[in-house]
Specification:
By secondary structure, the chain is α+β, with helices and mostly antiparallel strands. It is 36% helix and 18% strand. Strands 2-1-5-4-3 form a 5-stranded antiparallel β-sheet, sandwiched between helices. A hairpin with a 5-residue loop joins strand 3 and strand 4. Helix 4 runs parallel beside helix 6 and helix 6 packs across helix 7.
Length: 224
């Protein structure tokens, strides 16, 4: 036997061919194990073999529900068995583990070439482990309401390079050079730089004066 490409079939003659449905379930089993091992202790991953509803659970990784391999199918599995048109993916629905822990679940039905469900891959995320983390993160990013409307400082770089860039940008927006700005424009620029905190370093006033072609005293007068 050869593949359409002419590549020889590497299945050994003494090994029986695997039926298509079983092949699909085995591939899904590999996915279940891989996904489960990526989220240890956090997400339960269950593969249901819907060909055998009475002992449907074929694989269970990160067992959070207490179920075992060989346990029966869930209600979703039975609905898929009864109705091939039942949705293939039911995503992010609210669920609960037997001990009351909240869960978020996703169920993925797997059909064969005939359109019949043969398996379902289910993911059950344990929200109880994430809720404390969410609270911790909320507390971590919270700021003191006492100063929420008062900018105490900025974290921008106040180096000479950024100051020169701000001056050049202001002038370019007015189709001019820094020294070519008129007096009102220079006053507007200096006041803007003052508001934005560029006067926090001692050398800033002199640098601005040099860029604008005015005296340092003039720069300070412009801030008033």
């Amino acid at each position: 036997m050869t593949y359409p490409t002419g590549r020889p079939d590497d299945t050994r003659a003494d090994q029986p061919a695997v039926p298509e449905d079983e092949h699909l379930v085995r591939e899904a089993e590999r996915i279940a194990v891989a996904v489960g091992r990526m989220f240890p202790g956090l997400c339960e991953v269950v593969l249901h073999d819907l060909r055998r509803p009475d002992n449907a659970i074929r694989t269970i990784e990160n067992n959070l529900s207490g179920r075992q391999v060989g346990d029966s199918a869930t209600e979703l599995g039975l609905r898929r068995i009864a109705d091939p048109d039942y949705p293939s993916v039911i995503q992010n629905y609210s669920n609960q583990f037997p001990d009351g822990r909240p869960a978020k679940s996703t169920s993925i039905g797997i059909k064969n070439a005939e359109g019949r469900y043969v398996a379902a891959l289910c993911l059950n995320l344990d929200l109880s482990t994430l809720s404390p983390l969410a609270l911790t993160l909320a507390n971590l990013v919270a700021t003191d309401v006492e100063h929420q409307d008062e900018p105490l400082e900025t974290l921008r770089d106040r180096s000479g390079r950024e100051l020169r860039s701000a001056i050049d940008s202001f002038a370019a927006e007015r189709s001019s050079t820094p020294r070519g700005l008129n007096r009102d424009q220079k006053r507007e620029l200096v006041r803007r730089l003052h508001r934005e905190g560029f006067f926090e370093t001692r050398s800033s006033a002199q640098l601005i004066a040099d860029q604008l072609g005015v005296s340092r005293a003039t720069v300070y007068n412009y801030t008033k």
